[in-house]
Amino acid sequence: MRKLFTMNTHDLIRELREPAKTKIVMLVADGLGGLPMAPGGLTELETARTPNLDALAREGTVGLSVPVLPGITPGSGPGHLGLFGYDPLEYRIGRGILEALGINFAVGSKDVAIRGNFCTLGADGKITDRRAGRPTNEKNRAAVEKLRTIKIPGVELFVEPVKEHRFVLVIRGDGLGDRVNDTDPQAVGVTPLKAEGADAASAKTADVVNRFLAEAVKVLASEAPINGATLRGFATYPKIATFENVYGLKSAALAVYPMYKGLARLVGMDILDAGQTLQSQMDKLAAVWGDYDFFFLHYKYTDSTGEDGNFPAKVEMIEKLDAAVPDITKLKPDVLIVTGDHSTPSKMKSHSWHPVPTLIHADNCRPDEVIGFSERACLHGGLGQFQAQHLMLLAMAHAGRLGKYGA
Amino acid sequence: MRKLFTMNTHDLIRELREPAKTKIVMLVADGLGGLPMAPGGLTELETARTPNLDALAREGTVGLSVPVLPGITPGSGPGHLGLFGYDPLEYRIGRGILEALGINFAVGSKDVAIRGNFCTLGADGKITDRRAGRPTNEKNRAAVEKLRTIKIPGVELFVEPVKEHRFVLVIRGDGLGDRVNDTDPQAVGVTPLKAEGADAASAKTADVVNRFLAEAVKVLASEAPINGATLRGFATYPKIATFENVYGLKSAALAVYPMYKGLARLVGMDILDAGQTLQSQMDKLAAVWGDYDFFFLHYKYTDSTGEDGNFPAKVEMIEKLDAAVPDITKLKPDVLIVTGDHSTPSKMKSHSWHPVPTLIHADNCRPDEVIGFSERACLHGGLGQFQAQHLMLLAMAHAGRLGKYGA
């Protein structure tokens, strides 16, 4: 008997996984879970008419996934890492890295990636508009061109436009740390903060960005209302095993928003061009159905409408998603999972810690008594309340891709 | 499934346990959990008429136990270790030990146990049949007798027949390791592999088996088609704290099948001769009732019928078990637990990952609304879904054998 204190879940999966031809679809409705707007009311999901999701819940098994820990509200990074089976408390992905991945920038192991915001500074150097009047993407690109003229000895700099006031700065060099404070004070009427490093490697990074930001003010002088920049989310590239290395699954991501393409790329999924609509995502899914074992489908609008506090719009977006479900089921996936990376109740206008309605549809699901898909219904489901990071174990099991543990 | 404190659970139990006169019965229906054969159907347990188990569920509290982790299908070893309160990911039992336990060989702390296969070798020493034509058990025993004539100085050798081409070799001696490669190349047309040890102690074991296998070819010369042997699954006796050491319980195992007697012996339970029938097990239970604190009752047929894919037979075996329950309750155990080591759905003809219906019957159970014993009913039980390795904590608590943690 060997004591396996060191054995983590990924090692266990590598040991037990078995080849199969089965296909798994994970449909992530971002921020799916919700709350009633008033006592005695219904949640967004309970309000929405969802005949297709209800049918999946009736035929399959449901439960509630806890993204990180009870009471912990996850960002998009931890939320998705959990769904992908990576302990979100073990793997921490900096915002800068997510942003860089999201615009298809090939971040490397010597890089520190940082989110940038163009801002407007007053004559006194204090911020008057943190978003520089939300410039057009054209204005953004013009300003980025100016920033690209900045050179700092000893490091390579990459500046990439995102949209409106946002850009990405990547510093490539040896011995760069990411324990650097945001220079964005998140307020107007104050000057941007000076970058400082919490250790020697991070101090080197801080020195580079302080010089970069000083230069930025000069080269942006002619770009009003853009005349300065702030930086946040300093992040080095994480060490993380690929999805294929862990699960042996050839995996494709069909997402519209850069952030979620980035998260999928982080774990080594193929990032497919799925267009800009749910329909184009579904068309792409059908087109590449034969080429992959695992499909990550990301739907953003259940989260964005929740963040807007727009209850009726979130209900509508849930119903739009429900209407697209037959485009998936007609492909007859062996395992279809519908879940979310976290809850985003319209009432709170933000992500929340509430567990996420989750369903698994497969031939060998153990039936429960649930006949609809909602927060309340999932409380009675066969999956109970479970850690999101165990969802991939269930996906692999229902797909017949995990052998027996021990004799 | 994250460890929440550095102290392990066994140390905690040793610290908190209190002497008591209470008696605990754990009735393990192997492979108890199941699935419907077709959508909309009932599971084996839901189909079976189980008035006695239903009464226990109504009076007690129920839930679903997760043997290892969600989605992980356990073998008998990990399944039972979990029920006994040993983390199945921390303790792993080598194949050779399980094989020896399975034929009721009393493996000891100085033993290395190994699975053996009789094979047929060509004149060039290459394997022509890895199973020597699947000999009869009589042929097997005759060949085993020949192997028993082999002597290696410095160690004691035990050769035991299993069935057909399989036997068990146990090497007893000081400082023997088990990090030895299988000599079975798992292919024909090649010679058996030479055993090599990955450390000094294992090199000693390898030297013994290489000499044993050289002798085997000589003594088996007259046993054609058996004329050689291969070895695999080298395993030393596990270092594992006994049940009594952890729980302070004087414990007895009443099992019919050697494998389960072996697993109970592994944790130091007394292995009683309980005969070959459920009735003889119950008679033995009554006979020794005064002599022990904890009784492990193993019932095999819920698993074997499930493995056969024989749904009606599994239903019948569940009903037979239910009929025997009064033989237990009439003894008035303070805590009666009914559970399984894993699910074995007839539909899948194999072990599965699905959580296992579990009930605890005791004076101080908190009541739930469940009035019957089934997979679906247990979803609404007071125990919720819990890790099997925590079941013994609940057993000890309900038996009044665990004191308060902290002031």
What can you tell me about this protein's structure?
Two copies of one chain form a homodimer. Chain A is of the alpha/beta class and 407 residues long. The longest helix of chain A is centred in the middle third of the chain and has 20 residues, at 200-219. Chain A has two domains: 17-92 and 241-398, Alkaline Phosphatase, subunit A; 97-235, no CATH class. Chain A is globular, with a radius of gyration of 23 Å. Residues 1-6 of chain A have low confidence and may be disordered. An eight-stranded mixed β-sheet of chain A has the order 9-8-10-1-11-12-2-13, sandwiched between helices. In chain A, 32% of the residues lie in helices and 18% in strands. Chain A is built from 14 helices and 13 strands. Chain A starts with 8 loop residues before the first helix and ends in a 9-residue tail after the last helix. Chain A has helices at residues 9-16, 44-47, 51-59, 76-83, 95-102, 137-147, 200-219, 243-247, 258-266, 278-288, 301-307, 311-329, 375-378, 391-398, and strands spanning 24-29, 61-66, 111-121, 127-129, 156-161, 166-172, 228-236, 251-254, 270-271, 294-299, 335-339, 356-361, 384-387. Chains A and B meet through helix 1, strand 13 and helix 14 of A and helix 4 and helix 5 of B.
